[in-house]
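New to this. Help decode the following:
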Amino acid sequence: MSNAELKQAMVTMMMKKDEIEDRNGVLKSMLEQEEQYTKGLREELTQLTKKYEEQALRDQTKVQSVTKDNALLKHQLKKYITAVQMLRRDGPNAENLGIHLDEQPLPTITPSALEETTNHEATEYRRKLIQVAEMHGELMEFNEHLQRQLLQKESSLKKLTSELVELRGPLPTDVSSSLQDSYGVSGSSEWRPLVNIWIPSVFLKGSKSSSHHVYQVFLRIKDDEWNVYRRYSEFYSFFVAVKKLYPLVATFEFPPKKSVGNKEMRFVDERRKKLQLFLRKTIQHIVSKDENLASDLCKAKLVSCFSMLGDNTQPEIKSKRSKVKSSKSSLASNSGSPSHYTGL
């Protein structure tokens, strides 16, 4: 390769690096915005829940008070009617009942007045019962409204959480039981360092007749970060080998092979996302099952168990040309490789 070509390759590499750094900045900004939005949603949900609980407590207290008043009024009305009936029936013998009528005799209560009083009390009871029924209906409607809001907030939080996990991967500080379920990890992993995995980019390599896609895999364990570059066939070989040792891995979704249309950008991007999710679930599952690996997880341990995750150069490409031409092609491809992804 001439000096001019080398200079052109270096310029291309620097431009690619600047582009990736700009993209990294945009992703960081989006992540911060999503975190602030999620925090606001959580605070709003907490306020709504607290407000609902306070309102429910006030309404319950009010209903209890009205019920107690109704019971007291019923009891007083019953005593009043009983006393009136006894006075009308045993007026001359009122002294035997402890009722003194000598000084000022009680006024005579006519049946029409008694009926009018009873009707008035019954009307008051009906009015209060209607008020209680209306309050109960309003409470039920308010409760349904709050339930719908809570479901919407939970759905929004789950969606935002899944988007954040897809962007940054699971972190040790926020691995909850729901994320453990989605990643196939059992048991508590809050104090165990996770292997954070991204597949941020895919690029086409080789000539038109033998072109293929190479996936950039960025890995991070604590403060240790590195990149590897792998073809789809290497991912497939890894899947076949691992599922023999860990049968549960066979249930994880792995993107199938495709002979026609496998160069389309939409298909390639969808395969990239599926491979990223597969790698995350598989590695976290294996780490959770291997106590020796999980005890002091580091890059050396991980690479010793999975050689595919070693940070080497881009994978070699078999060629029918001579060894000299193959070495020149390898040198050219290494000099023009994309810059390493530095993480979020």
Summary: Residues 3-89 form the longest helix (87 residues). The radius of gyration is 39 Å.
